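dude i think i finally got it to work??
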Amino acid sequence: MTTLTRQRAALTLAVLATLLGVTSLAALSLGSETVSLSRLLAIVGGWYAPGSATDASEAIVLQIRAPRVVLAGFVGATLGLTGAVLQSILRNPLAEPHLIGVSSGAALGVIVAGLWPIQHALASATATWLFAFAGGMTTLVALYRLSLVSGRIRPETLVLAGVVLNGTLSAVIMFLTSYVDPARIFGRVVWLMGNLGSVESQVLWAIGPVLGLGMTWLCLQGRPLTIMTLGAETAQSLGVHAERVIRSCLIVSAMMIGLVVSLSGMIGFVGILTPHILRRLIGTDYRLLLPASVLGGAMFLIIADTVARVALAPTELPVGVITAICGGPFFLWLLAQRRKQVTG
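look at this
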């Protein structure tokens, strides 16, 4: 296992946390109406005088932008973390919730849940998340089984199966959306491309602890995941039950992906871009990489959502468009690098 000092880990996470804080403040400040830093700090700290010009900005910052920034942070952190976990347990650096079809499976679950309208808000949200979890988990299990060849996961088979599943599930989603409720097809398309502007603050209070627990549990798997990179026999000798770790990580990852997809739609490339950049900066030790992916993923999606809001203001772009513009070329570059490694 690679050497990792507490001082290095603490310094790295402190730097990333500071950058995340600065990014969040910038996101709260920027928009169709720019809020100055002094006014923003007054709003956040509650230092402004009632009846002042800051009152109007308060509604914009606290009621509109703050919930969106918090949601972007949660979603980005989840996608960044689960991307790093999936790349580890599936032994494929190209694995990512969106690209291998897990997000599509969860989105299909959301669409199916919507076919049975439930009046009670909490029951409806719970049913939606359960269907999303079931869809994401089913896709993950199918991918895991399809990529096993002679008891070993074949990376090229995993990517191929993921692409096929992603395309098939996306086609089923569009069929259900257009056939069952044609009047809502435009809204569904926008949601499928990523939408962070439609979640209320009360929902954030409900999902925050759930996602926090999931992230904490996955980050605690950094040691066994790092040991597993040394090989099955070494992991077994060090007391790591690889199959148990893989199974539990897949279940928790599917639960978290299902939850964020039910809230924000399908947002791609966060889970592949963030862990790869961090690996080059801080190394491959998962004890540090996993919590760093939480902070890095949150920061990346907050930046992407801010760009989506201000690039063509007052028109708002789906945040998935921005992440795809950033992540698509990066994914092609990764494919080219892997091709050089294989042929070289």
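The first helix runs from residue 6 to 29.
im so relieved honestly
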